[in-house]
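Hi all, long-time lurker, first post. I run a small reading group and we've been trying to get comfortable going from sequence to structure in the token notation. Rather than ask abstract questions, I figured I'd post a concrete chain and ask someone more experienced to write out its structure so we can walk through it together at our next meeting. Sequence below, copied exactly:
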Amino acid sequence: MTPLMAARAYGAAIKQSDSLAGGATAATGRPDFGKMLAGALEQTSKATQGAENMMVQQQQGKAELIDAVTAVSSAETNLQTVISIRDQVISAYQEIMRMPI
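-- Answer (accepted) --
Happy to help. Here is the structure in token form:
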């Protein structure tokens, strides 16, 4: 994932979390990054659990294979987005630490 894709995912997550919170932002007037990240982690966890449940249902013959594959693909996309955001945060932190004082 490129930095541009990560920035777009971050922007989309901010819009989504802002709409879910009723437009609530931090005291500075900007969205709270920590809350956005926690929401993304929670969403990824729910998608992963949903994919696991869908796989079990498919094995029991209660769900179609395409539904299970779609759920797993969605969970994988969510996880890749969170990992990309984490990588960008670590990269930014490392760059800040390299700055002379």
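A couple of things your group might point at:
The chain has one domain: 3-98.
The mean pLDDT is 83.
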